[in-house]
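A reminder before we start the practical. When you read a complex entry, don't treat the lines as separate problems. The point of joint prediction is that each chain is placed relative to the others, so the output describes one connected object in space. Small molecules and nucleic acid strands, if listed, are placed in the same frame. In the example below there are four entries. Take a minute to note the order of the lines before looking further.
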Amino acid sequence: MTENIKKNWREKIHEIIYEADTPAGKLFDVVLLILIILSIIFVMMESVKGLSEKMYDFLLYAEWIITIFFTIEYIARVISIKKATSYIFSFYGIIDLLSTIPLYLSFFILGSNALLTVRALRLLRVFRILKITRYIGEANKLTRALKDSRPKILVFLFAVLVLCIIMGTLMYIVEGEESGFKNIPVSVYWCIVTLTTVGFGDIAPVTPLGQLIAAIIMIMGYGIIAVPTGIVSAEYAANKKTIPLRNNTQVCSNCNEDKHQNDAKYCHNCGYTLFNE
Amino acid sequence: MTENIKKNWREKIHEIIYEADTPAGKLFDVVLLILIILSIIFVMMESVKGLSEKMYDFLLYAEWIITIFFTIEYIARVISIKKATSYIFSFYGIIDLLSTIPLYLSFFILGSNALLTVRALRLLRVFRILKITRYIGEANKLTRALKDSRPKILVFLFAVLVLCIIMGTLMYIVEGEESGFKNIPVSVYWCIVTLTTVGFGDIAPVTPLGQLIAAIIMIMGYGIIAVPTGIVSAEYAANKKTIPLRNNTQVCSNCNEDKHQNDAKYCHNCGYTLFNE
Amino acid sequence: MTENIKKNWREKIHEIIYEADTPAGKLFDVVLLILIILSIIFVMMESVKGLSEKMYDFLLYAEWIITIFFTIEYIARVISIKKATSYIFSFYGIIDLLSTIPLYLSFFILGSNALLTVRALRLLRVFRILKITRYIGEANKLTRALKDSRPKILVFLFAVLVLCIIMGTLMYIVEGEESGFKNIPVSVYWCIVTLTTVGFGDIAPVTPLGQLIAAIIMIMGYGIIAVPTGIVSAEYAANKKTIPLRNNTQVCSNCNEDKHQNDAKYCHNCGYTLFNE
Amino acid sequence: MTENIKKNWREKIHEIIYEADTPAGKLFDVVLLILIILSIIFVMMESVKGLSEKMYDFLLYAEWIITIFFTIEYIARVISIKKATSYIFSFYGIIDLLSTIPLYLSFFILGSNALLTVRALRLLRVFRILKITRYIGEANKLTRALKDSRPKILVFLFAVLVLCIIMGTLMYIVEGEESGFKNIPVSVYWCIVTLTTVGFGDIAPVTPLGQLIAAIIMIMGYGIIAVPTGIVSAEYAANKKTIPLRNNTQVCSNCNEDKHQNDAKYCHNCGYTLFNE
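Here is the predicted structure of the whole assembly.
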């Protein structure tokens, strides 16, 4: 009997925390989202000189309240799921842990609470909360197009890197230290800055030959940018119609699997019952 | 009888102001366009030191003449339409109002007439005036491709923002205040400047680790730019043939609805007669 | 008889100068190309301090020799064609004239010979000389894709310009003169620099609000760049297979029309005989 | 008999060095890859002041050990292949030679060992070592899309160059030497920096007319970037399905030909037996 009640109690927490189908679940998610955003704003404000001194007490208390809430939420997430490890070692599990630890660490290590902005990653939860069929579908399509393009993009980035090492060394030899190209790593850095068309201008070639090579690098960068764009375009156009939408926010309380079919009654991963009240 | 004459008088003004099919309507639109462009040039000239002192009197009078014309035009637009509110609260209605108010406000608030450049938005009227089938069709296609891509672009921009918050904080921790990364918001700003490949160079990393992270951000930015391009490309290619052109410049004098079929005789929104003389 | 000989003489010059099918015509074109490139290099060298003083005499003579050759060539082009006006007022006719005049003008106006680099435009003749089927075909395809995209690109650029005027004025109001935004035209210029992701960094926002707006402009620019790319991509993909290649270098000696079919015997414009020896 | 043994001995070396199908061949390739990467890191470290002084002895010995290994490997490659010239004059043959010579040269010429980073090109061997079907396929597709786009890209780059020469000269005339546009080549360099949206900011226009022209160049650059992207997109999409994958790492020991079919037993180039043990 007690076992049964405990199970129900755990299932209810699971429903509130992990899902967004019930009013309580939705409310929880909205509160969580607001706290995440507030927390990021507070960490940012803390880094601003002048502002942080004026509002020192407020920011300190606010940080602690939010962190304690996040800690409770983390514990609740761990105990409300059957296989705790499937949550703890998941992407969100690690992010959730990392978003609470830094403040506790700040007792021992100075400046570690700047790491609190890792909480920004928690913002990704927003997509589940909004639960707008369209938006989740779009994110899925985007993710899949990117995933399909990954090997090509890696090959491309590798080629760009080799090119930057070669051209960077060449610029180091041509321009020398007095122009700001003080060693090969810095020259390679400059070459990446130039090839990607960022162009800070803190380092710039001054010799005619250096400027000629720089011009060649720029025109190459200008032409090369077409490659990833072409790849993603083609992949995206090919994927456009073939992806079935899955926008069910149900999460299996046993194995933490999500992305169930809209009308799923059992988890497609472990067969456990889904709670579609 | 008087009612009838008044109605005709209002309909004539409506035809001149809102439409571009008759010679009078075309002339009005061209005069309006020239005044809008002149007005923007005058506001710009006013802001240029030296020039504004030499031409002070001329600019002052010119501004007032144009503003009075715009005010009369605004009133004429309001009274010549049946449902005045449908114009007043429309996009152009608000722009038209905002383009007259600042100068009157300049009696009370210093510098408010710089806001007059909001008139630039009125330039968008040019598309209706030119009434070139092709151009309106192109604008429609572009607008529709952008509208269809909106959810994807929003998801994309959101991901970029989260990335910039994370990387910006990282750079703040790595580089510190002496390199110009004086607080997290500034670091996030720098990260946006770098990821979008703008690269002002007013802030630039100086430590080897900072330059390594910057290089990673740049290469990510270089690869990420492929995503919106791919999306718009695919949407645009998909829409290319499916959009019917609508280039009728008729505007219903009752409900202010435009975008009627070329051979429409009655407003498709309220059933009011369109004046196709 | 004399008339006939003269006609033949004119036709021969026409063949050598305007066409690239015969050995003499090819040789002429190659010599012309080399002279154009040399001429550009000499004008560039002249602008380099130190270099120009050392080589003053050489550069002066070289310039004059090339200019006299170009002048003779221009006269030969005019007299060897039936309807001289069809050449004189064509694109190449004007370029050819402009590439000779500046040096003669340099007797009267100082520095006018810097305009000699207009000769660079003559380099476009290279495509006819190379007469590589593939390259001409590619250039035609590119030109046609760009021509088809023109109305869209114009609408797009107009929208970008209106956006830059609005945002530039906003930045002028927010940042003010002490940050380098000294008047509205400069602010609009800065906005174009930022939106196109060039980012010189000579002017950069310093206030938090200014940096926020700048960040928005950059992200807009980053997203907006997708639009022209998408347009050209789609147009280019659509045109890819539908363009017949025309790589005949024959030019009608009567009306100066080119782009004849490969097996054309008569000018498709005026019916005059083409000389396909 | 001895002839036979020698042949077997040469074939074994060939198998280890040129192929990646056997455990010994794989091990050799991995060791080679690690040495290449280490060698590049050492050359980079050598260029960093302070670091190079502290670790002088270590870096010197490391460089020599790696170079001697590369030299032995080069000799082994030459003697283990039937037609030595087919390797010596191939792309990798030249790279392999260039990656050993600079250190020997450093006895005679100061600073020549900076050229050792040419070894980075050897990294391209990694694709053969990894032997991941997918990655090689992707690299082939990319290479082919780029190869197909080459004539178009050349035409495009040529047009960009002519544009930069014209606009650069114009800026030289408009801005003059006091703004940093000290001669035409520098102005052309600046124009390339601007058109490719790099924008270092070491040179920037200061006169209103110069800024207007710069704005036009930027917007052109912003629009022009669409062209190579569109080309590569279209080519890539067209090629997507038509390329058969070839991921056999076998290299003919007679003629050095690679890219054999997966089930090839004889070299498709010279008919020599392939060793598919």
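Discuss with your neighbour: Confidence is low (pLDDT under 50) at residues 241-247 of chain A. What might explain this?
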